[in-house]
Fold each of these.
Amino acid sequence: MAADCFALDGHKLFWHLDRVAAWQKDRLVPPIYVEISPLSYCNHQCIFCGLDFIRGERVILETEVLLRRIEEMAALGVKSVMFAGEGEPLLHPDLPLIAARAKEAGIDVSVTTNGMSGTTELWEKLLPSLTWIRFSIDAATSETYQVVHGVKPGAFQRTIASLKEAMLAKQRQKLPVTVGVQFLMIRQNLQDIEPALSLYSGIGVDYLSFKPYSEHPQMLNKSGFTYTREMIDDIALKIERFGTSGPTRIIFRKAATDAYAESAQKFSHCRALPFWGYISSRGDFYSCSVYINDERFSVGNIYQTRMSEILFGDKRGESIDFAEKELEIDHECRVNCRMARINEFLEFLDDKPEHINFI
Ligand code: SF4
């Protein structure tokens, strides 16, 4: 099986062709995947955080409302949720319960976390409900971690202890959950790439992925960092030298890194919004997570409105239509956004050639 068996550097719409066919007939279809931000606050201050512009008030999603909306989403055809977003999801006290109920409803559940506040007890409760969990660590030494995650000395040791506890909980309960580590590459941590390969393979995580930085259009702490051809070749060489055939899959998201370095979108319109969505810590449903606080993408609120009305409502339809027909992606959107590969695929699909029956 390929090192990138999760297609992190690609997309998976090929396996949802029924939803794609429904979209070809009627642009308004239920999302396949929804990101949920259980709360607005974080215990780290990452220097690359794309959501630093919404820091401030502490808001937490009410469990009962969220549980109802998750069950409604499952009934409407949402297939997966990821808990991540504006704050650190492990800080929501009901996360294990919410994840368990989502799984019971038939939705695949995942979490992206900095992992630091994980404990044996938490992992024992949470991991059985998850398809995968991703620890965003982005460093292999305490010194780099302090710089990149804006944390105090000792934080790195706590995070590594938590990661090891998660691996033990997975082994004890013989869980199928995939435990991965993400390393977002920026100028301040490139020297940790080789140590990271040894450290996380040694811990035995299921995968270690190297992901490119991507500047959020609204973020306050913009660094302007990008990759040179030499940098990309050097990262690829380090990974090749380490080897990719061990039990820990090593995934270098090279296609995404190349695309970010080239800094040009390979599609002209956004057609991806029907396939995903984002629920903010205030309960607002956005048709794209990049546009938090932007009315053009805010299509309902889960405290006031049922999911059927949000997902099939006029506002979502208008937002999807706006993104496809009017949004100037080159000027407004995040380069290499989460939906870039999907948009490339959908553009290809919409650009119907002549004589299609001559396959
Ligand atoms: S292209 Fe723009 S609107 Fe579409 S998903 Fe990406 S950032 Fe959002």
Amino acid sequence: MGKIVKVSGPLVVATGMEEANMADVVRVGEQRLIGEILNMTGDAASIQVYEETSGLGPGAEVVTTGAPLSVELGPGLIENIYDGIQRPLEVIREVSGSNSLPRGVEVPALDREKKWAFTPAVQPGTRVVGGDVLGTVQETESILHKIMLPPRMKGTIVSIQGGPFTVTETVAVLEQEDGSRVELPMMQKWPVRVGRPYKHKYPPVVPLQSGQRIVDTFFPVAKGGTAAIPGPFGSGKTVMQHALAKWSDVDLVVYIGCGERGNEMTDVLREFPELVDPRTGQSLMKRTVLIANTSDMPVAAREASIYTGITIAEYFRDMGYAVAVIADSTSRWAEALREMSGRLEEMPGEEGYPAYLSSRLAQFYERAGSVACLGSDEDRRGSLTAVGAVSPPGGDLSEPVSQATMRIVKVFWALDSSLAYRRHFPAINWLNSYSLYLDSLKPWYDEHLGKDFLQNREWAMAVLQEEASLNEIVQLVGKDSLSARDQITLETAKMIREDFLQQNSFVDIDSYSEYDRQARMLALIREYDGHCREAAERGGDLAQMFSIPAREKIGRAKSVPANQYMDNYANIMVEMDEEINAIAEKGEEAL
Ligand SMILES: Nc1ncnc2c1ncn2[C@@H]1O[C@H](COP(=O)(O)OP(=O)(O)OP(=O)(O)O)[C@@H](O)[C@H]1O
Ligand SMILES: [Mg+2]
């Protein structure tokens, strides 16, 4: 047992801690506040305390638990809301009857009373290894929770029984190689700072379908990939992340509200239960785990929150599910890291962030991937996609958190305040965003959307780049001096921006756009562009071409109901061909 010698905000130094180890969870003071040892010098431990430390002073006792910071994994995770160290916020509020988190309350992360119907998947006598599925629990209508043998264990099942059990009751008994027997409950624990093991990683070859056109068509992220959403204040980071959480075609979403305003989490809590998962017809909460460490909660737990979140995500990945982790915002997380580093009086790096900022960020994103899951079955695959928002002060991407993130992630959706100001949403700048997955996803696109898809995408990107350079000329000499070709380029670019890329998250019919629809929409615009160029050569009048009825219909294409778009778009194809051809013919007569 040690004694406190110094308290500095969330940092506590205690001596007499020779029995403790680095990374141990400790209990601090009479209130038994939860802390974690950051480093040890001799018998002195520097401890980050996850709860408010006011009232704590020198002389108070510190006891180590001897265990690292871990999460509880088992039925009951889904639909739950946890803080950064997996304390169930709703339950705590019920127990304490107060709205602010009381200190030192001990409530287990998984409900100890609730019984879950366990169905065995193996018989006594079966040889099992870590990761093997022992049985299942239908946790929600959307998720079949697979109860797995914890990693690194193996042996023979001696007994196993179905029926209603709590997470700590024994459902099976395992005889290990050395003859010893272990009772297995449904719950397992895992230290949050250690990635859960898998057999091997696969290259990510399937896109995560988000229903957001700028993402899916322009800058896709693969399932198992990493992406960042950098953007200045109010540019749409949170709206974008909510859209990804709502619409991504994954089995489970872990949403980490990390240092953001409390009301943004309230939005999630209010909105998600009402939203319907398009694939299961169930409430979206039935596939969501929320981690909330809002700006009004203790800063240290914010540091832990992204690891807590990604560990829960890995656990579901291990079952063979596609999981997405969404963190808003990693800049707030980095600020927590900076604050602790400052209190530890470490040598500051750039802008006061510790030198290990980028390695810590990497430790988060590295845990993404498309993997062969642990276990003796051959083909269980899971994926973990990680998406983090970054809020660079003033939108300046040269600051340390943006730079470190950019070196790690493979997709960059750069939000732009000037686009947001013009109400072009999502305000993702197409000129400085990128995806490094296009090559690995190409076979998928070719197979599912046809070879045209990537060609049309490249064409559209080229048109937008040309628009950017033409705009410079227009500013100098005016639009009228441009050739017919260039004027068509500008008109087409406008269509790509307004009719395709702009997508309002708050208009139901357009908040989600499936891949096939995106492909057809872009094909429409390219077809229009091609017809216009041909007609212009035949002497057709540009102004007339730009105002044909079919052009307007393309503008409204995104609001056509999902069950009508195929016919509707096919009709537009025919109409625009006729309308532009008529203009070309008039042109030829006039020549
Ligand atoms: N896709 C979208 N469709 C429609 N409106 C949008 C979209 N994205 C953003 N907006 C508008 O921009 C506002 C700000 O967006 P949001 O809260 O996501 O910004 P933020 O980058 O998270 O800001 P902060 O830096 O304050 O966290 C929204 O309230 C909404 O009005
Ligand atoms: Mg936000």
Amino acid sequence: MAMLEVKDLQVFYGMIQAIKGISFEVNEGETVALIGANGAGKTTTLHTITGLLSPKKGSVVFEGKEITKVPAHKIVSLGMAHVPEGRRVFAQLSVYQNLKMGAYTRKDKAEIDEMLETVYKRFPRLKERQNQMAGTLSGGEQQMLAMGRALMSKPKIVLLDEPSMGLSPILVNEIFDIIQSLNKAGTTVLLVEQNAKKALSIADRAYVLETGRIVQSGDAQVLLNDESIKKAYLGE
Ligand SMILES: Nc1ncnc2c1ncn2[C@@H]1O[C@H](COP(=O)(O)OP(=O)(O)OP(=O)(O)O)[C@@H](O)[C@H]1O
Ligand SMILES: [Mg+2]
């Protein structure tokens, strides 16, 4: 049984259909990439999985349980965390306060402190800056904070929406290294990216989304060497 199963999903914005019947799955322990150009429907797909949007048709099943109609605020406590596009940290709050917000589903203080230590270990830069206002962090640091905040809920799966956006190549590498080590430590990853090359380089499998449809899928290494993918997405 797949950990996350998306079945024949159709999502509309008013009259416009953004997602035209897509199905895919993420197995426990995998890193799965969802790649595609601007407007392909990547963010819409993540928002539908996390309950921010509701589909007209289709279903989302997490650990065997249908969650299609579960609202966003209840999804986190099931073990699914979403790192939104554009980070969306609370600019007026400190790094520490932002991280604490990520643990809002947890009540046990010892457990929250333990998660905080784990996050600081993974992101030493956040520890150094724990009292800094989040709005004054660099883009890369804000991405780390958004990821750290998601990890505070101790998720089984993390959904990342374009973590590389707007970052320098060095920082992109740093963020992707962190995603990889996070996955090695046992967190399942669904990674949405326009940076197909980087995403495929760390993913086990991938799906290619084009104007609301999945047009190709398979082993990430195979897709990385696929001529049509190279031309369309890898700039080769
Ligand atoms: N709130 C909205 N109202 C109407 N149309 C929307 C809305 N949000 C997204 N869309 C449209 O749905 C389609 C898919 O958008 P989506 O944001 O999911 O794409 P994306 O793959 O995440 O793109 P990007 O890489 O630019 O983030 C686009 O055509 C977009 O214009
Ligand atoms: Mg998007």
Amino acid sequence: MKILITGTAGFIGSHLSRKLLNNGYSVVGIDNVNNYYSVDLKKDRLKILLESKIKNYEIDLEDHNALMSVFEKENPDVVINLAAQAGVRYSLENPHAYITSNVNGFTSILEGCRHYGVNNLIYASSSSVYGANTTKPFSTSDNIDHPLSLYAATKKANELMAHTYSHLYNLPTTGLRFFTVYGPWGRPDMALFKFTKSIVNNEHIDVYNHGNMMRDFTYVDDIVEAITRLVDKPAESNSDWSGANPDPSSSKAPYKVYNIGNNSPVRLMEFIEAIENKLGKTAKKNFMNLQPGDVPETYANVDDLYNTIDFKPETKIQDGVNNFIDWYLEYYDIKL
Ligand SMILES: NC(=O)c1ccc[n+]([C@@H]2O[C@H](COP(=O)([O-])OP(=O)(O)OC[C@H]3O[C@@H](n4cnc5c(N)ncnc54)[C@H](O)[C@@H]3O)[C@@H](O)[C@H]2O)c1
């Protein structure tokens, strides 16, 4: 089976590619290695994959012709679309980047899947689609009509676009709403990386909403395990689905969305303590207001995921944070 993964130089994409290569799949990658954050970090992630014989194309998703030639040449059975402009806060600064990668780019992915007979499209959505919802835990059966950032709106748009292709062309599509993913090789724009770096350098960390935040932090290996189990489980039509009472998580068409979260939210202050414990240092804290676009709490209901793949994320926060910091200190050659 040949799998096309986009976002191979990215945090989650590099972990996933490594695992699928190790499991014996033939993996082809796409990543434009853009400079949203450190290009060196992306290249180092790719370097490891290239040693494992991945074939990688450095193209933009939104370059429709280039993308179609990859589909034509490689003819993948499964496509896993992780490439996107990520980040909630940056979507206030550079909204167009989100439309270009996440909406235009995703349209080309759908077209490629349609024209080249892909039998399973899996794509990254996000917990941010729950936006202004306050009923916890968040369920894929909830209405998600109130996004709080353009990033979230593009992820919801992806789900809607996927549904139309599932309906019109019988393309099995599975959307995965990831909840704050963390772990080794993590993203420099995310809290764990920023906090660790600042604490190591004796600099202040910005603690948003005065520390009154909860996140359902999900360890990257758990995300990768869940995606791996979905590779040979394409979405199927739900025969019980009714347009009179439409369940948002499935359809008469082969369409499905899942939450992938730890189902166990952690207080932001507890998260910072886990970093302090591992580093043996106390953080200097700048308490600040909630940032525009941010939500105070995320919490995933993962019953549906568990019923389908017999697995749910369970890594304890201190274990995951320890693994990240071990990687960080080794990668940047830091002695404490
Ligand atoms: N990390 C998280 O906590 C989290 C949470 C929810 C959803 N997600 C989603 O999961 C996916 C992977 O996230 P990540 O944390 O690995 O992000 P990442 O930024 O590390 O990886 C994305 C990769 O895609 C590439 N890319 C971006 N736009 C592209 C384009 N137009 N064409 C080709 N390549 C492009 C980037 O160079 C990058 O290497 C993204 O879709 C993201 O929105 C991540």
